[in-house]
Write a structure and sequence with these properties.
elongated, 137 residues, mainly alpha, 5 helices
Length: 137
């Protein structure tokens, strides 16, 4: 039961981390154009060129830090298993890949997003392992 809780809380922490960096910080520092609807996938597909570059950079940063935060928290709660951290990290990679596939982006954005989410997973894994000293998985 503790590992289920660890997975759920870790995923929430990862998602909130992404939301804070991408939406709260990103959209305040780099406002979207008038009438923008970032929650509407169709609007995003048709208007990627109108989104400020700074906002896109913060999306990549958010996708980097999300798995790190979520995996760390999942392992901190579990204390005995890496599985919750792996699930959280895996879900964040899948979400980022979905985003990459669904939205047309510049090459730099696609590459940076894909590479940095994996780097975030690896850093998250390293931090998580330190929280689960008895874990062998």
């Amino acid at each position: 039961m503790k590992n289920v809780l660890a997975t759920i809380v870790g995923f929430i922490v990862a998602s909130v981390t992404v939301y804070i960096i991408e939406s709260i910080i990103g959209h305040n520092m780099f406002p979207l154009p008038e009438g923008a609807d970032p929650m509407n996938m169709e609007w995003l597909k048709n208007n990627m060129d109108q989104i400020p570059t700074g906002s896109k950079v913060l999306v990549v940063i958010a996708h980097f830090f999300g798995p790190i935060a979520g995996m760390f928290v999942a392992a901190k709660i579990s204390k005995t298993s890496m599985i919750p951290a792996y699930i959280v990290g895996g879900l964040m990679i899948v979400a980022t890949l979905f985003n990459i596939i669904m939205l047309p982006k510049e090459l730099w954005f696609t590459l940076a997003d894909g590479v940095l989410v994996i780097v975030g997973f690896l850093i998250g894994k390293s931090l998580a392992k330190k929280q689960t000293p008895s874990s062998h998985d």
